[in-house]
From TrEMBL:
Residues 505-522 have a biased composition (Low complexity). Residues 433-462, 479-526 are annotated as: Disordered. Keywords: Glycosyltransferase, Transferase. The lineage of its organism: Bacteria, Bacillati, Bacillota, Clostridia, Eubacteriales. The keyword Glycosyltransferase applies. Residues 32-302 form the Penicillin-binding protein transpeptidase domain. This is Penicillin-binding protein 1F. Residues 479-493 have a biased composition (Basic and acidic residues). The gene is pbpF_1. Coiled coil: none annotated. Signal peptide: none annotated. PANTHER family: BINDING PROTEIN TRANSPEPTIDASE, PUTATIVE-RELATED, PEPTIDOGLYCAN GLYCOSYLTRANSFERASE. InterPro entries: Beta-lactam/transpept-like, Glycosyltr_51/Transpeptidase, PCN-bd_Tpept. GO terms for molecular function: penicillin binding; peptidoglycan glycosyltransferase activity.
Amino acid sequence: MSKQKQLQDSIDSGLSTFTGKDSNTNKYNVQGAAVSIDNSTGYVAAIVGGRGTDDEFNRAFLAYRQPGSAIKPVFVYAPAFDNKYHPLSRVTDQYIPGGPQNDEHSYFGSVTLRYAAEMFLNTIPYILMTRLGTNKLMQYLLNMHSTGICKEDYNSISAIGGFTKGVSPVEMAGAYSTLEHDGEYTETTCIKKMTYQDGSIIVKDQKTLDRNKVYTKESAYMMTDVLKGVLSEDYATGHKLALANGQIAAGKTGTTSNNKDGWFCGYTKFYTTAVWIGADMTEEINNLYGAVYPGQIWKDYMDKIHQNLKPQDFEKPDTVVYKYINPQTGEKVDYDSGVQDMFSKPILDEIEDEKKKAEADARAKLEANYRESEPQREKEIERLLQKYESESYTSVESLDTIDSLRDSINHLIGQIIDVDKANLYKDRLDKRSSELKSSRDKWENIKQNQEKERQLKIDENNSEVERINKQKQLLREQEELQQEKEQQQKEQQDNNSEEEKEAAEAVSKVQSFSSDTSKSDSNLQASVSDAVFKIDKLRNQVLQGALKQAVYDKVLLLK
């Protein structure tokens, strides 16, 4: 089956539930168009302009519609990679007064460009366009022969697909095939060659098709790598559209406001296909999303034409290199942060060259400023030198004053660009320093002796303080021991009182027995044993003897 028929069948079957037709034209209300490009040649492999047989309007070439998010990779993100951004560069996703809003008004804070492209964020492309400039980004579309661009489109809202007229499916297919072709745009055509009857050429063959470098090969590859994530990441908008048999693909969904237009544009190493679904008379279509009808049609067709093709990945240019980044900021770092991202080596080289140039310019500017202010420094050095030459060391205090003056002069001399003048100033400074050396040494010795005496007093004071502190510590320890001893004595007294009380009670119990009680009475014997036991525990021997005697006397009185 030809690719043309396969593409037509995929659209017809994918939209089979939309059966409504216009009563006047007999055309289907919900239409579809698609263009498939053979990446190996650049020619259109299949093109579908609509549904049904009663329709001559070729929407693939002639219908200009709003592209939604499908325009972001070719219009904003890939150009951003051309301009020093990289996939893990971070931009803040937040509400922008007067700007576009995200779906369901959800905002995620600091996000990477990779995440923003894989999702449906509108704020990030808008911010990038305001930073990079509308004119610069519009030139990318013009370089890919986008004929629907008009002057009203030169505003930041176009970053999310808000065009006046729009783009056609064939233009979108051509733009996405440019990413696969290392950033080189090839004129999208079905015509290989056209000649007059006499053999003269009307249209040139494929070898001379118009070609135009749109993106750097590094940016094109990085964009492709990001768009692979649209199909492979679980959170991405196209995660259910991965191709069969492990065929590697990249792509992007697009849905306009109120579900009026749906797009899916994607490519492999072999083919690039763009699918549009919508109505000729723009209207809301129930459940129309880029990942639903357009995405499902794209997957159905691409699975068919890749059945006998071995999965092939996109080739990374040698000039795309991996560098460590700070994961919080997305900035490149010179240490192992554990996170790497892709960078364009030419851009890194350009940044390094710019850095070196900026440093050189800064040095040149600093030197120019120094040269400009040289007379003022010379004047100040002369003033300070004259003052230094008139000074003498007359006290310990003068040491710091004159030494500080000398150091200030020496510092200023080091800033003089004219080496000869600097040497003359240095000679004068050294000469006066030599003249002052003996008197300075004298006062320096006095200062050192004073410092020794002061230190000695400090040491003596410290020793006295230490002695007093030790004495205080000893007194505290003695007080603590005395308190501990008194506490122990008190506790001992309390214990003795309690034991004496218990012994007295036991003796009273023995004495409570009547004189008629037999000495062999078991209760009496138990009471006597208890009393003797408690009496033996007493430390007061006098009391101990008295209580024992009382017990014995009582027992003697019994039968």
